[in-house]
Amino acid sequence: MLGFKGNSNAREKVNYYSYMNSNEWKNKSRKFRRKTGDRCQIFPWLKAESSHHTNYNNLGSEQWNVDCIVISHSAHKLIHGWLAGFRRDVGVSKQNENPKNKYPNSLQKTIHWYARIVGVVLYLIKFI
Ligand SMILES: [Zn+2]
Question: What's the 80 CA to ligand 1 centre distance in angstroms?
Answer without folding.
Answer: 7
